[in-house]
Design goal:
single chain; two-stranded antiparallel ribbon; Rhopdopsin 7-helix transmembrane proteins; transmembrane helix; about 70% helix
Amino acid sequence: MSSSSVQLASTSVSLTLNLFLCWLIMRKSPESMGSYKHLMIYTSVFEIYYALLDAAADVTVFSHGFAVVVFREFSSKSWVSRPISMILVIAYCVTFGMSMAMLASHFVYRYSVTDSKFNLRYLAGRKYILLFLAPFFYAIWWTSALLFGYLPNEESDEYLKNRFLETYDLRIDQISYVSPKFYKYGTHGELLFNVPAWVAVTNCLMMVTSSIFCALYLGTKCYLNITKQLTTVTGISKFSANLQKQLFTALVIQTIIPVVIMYLPILVFFLCPMINVNLGYSSKLISDMVAFYPVVDPLPNMFIIKSYRNAILDIFRCGNSSGKIYTSKCTKSTQDSNNINMNSMTTVHQPDRF
């Protein structure tokens, strides 16, 4: 299957799954989930945007010597102008930074639910909106790094033009690309540090590191708090603690997914050119792996969170028993189940937010 076919298939499946997840969040979330469902919907909408952008940009990622290249084919007959073509490439790269901020926001929120002091200090009232603004802050920061150290110039054009011709049969004027080129040749052919590229990639690594720190540090503290709550609470409040555990488990799996199929491969992908190791044609796999991310990311929420899993099972049970998605009996059963969940679950620390 070609790279374009993979991206198109991934986009179609991702749109379907994320729209369905939005419906589950809006219609099947227990009351005790509180405002966390807004952050979940926000994430699903971002992944819909990411999937559409991935299809529109149709980029290819590869490495060549001490350079990493993200490019898309451009021609005078293209449906977009050359400046828009470059904007698509940059926007595609920036979504990686936004996804890192989104991941950190989830861990900050999940920990705040288990620590009322942390919540009152950092997320109470209007401070809560900072979780939604963080991806845009990272987007501005990431874009600034790209513009500073990744934009093409005559030197990078000269270094990459033969690779484009040999591998993709494209001339420099037929593509839009960004490329951190970590070294440059001196007057005597020696390798010198390309300072703008290193400054830019250092800023990008700072963003990645900050997100990973939030995930590891706050995630560990959140797990310890949840474990403690499950051993101390009894009766009705245990329903909330169990829901909290489900949400945290789904979040951990949602963290593992991009780490395995996105973050670690891209980290290796950047480290090799930094030490002047050519990955060769294996680097083409990165584009397909990144395109696969928004397809699998909604699945943990859909199948680990009990109320969503039950709603999905009810749909299939009703469909198999009557040939229709909903019958009056199934609808009543599902509504009764949701009402029981909503009435029996309360938050451990905050009655208005989970």
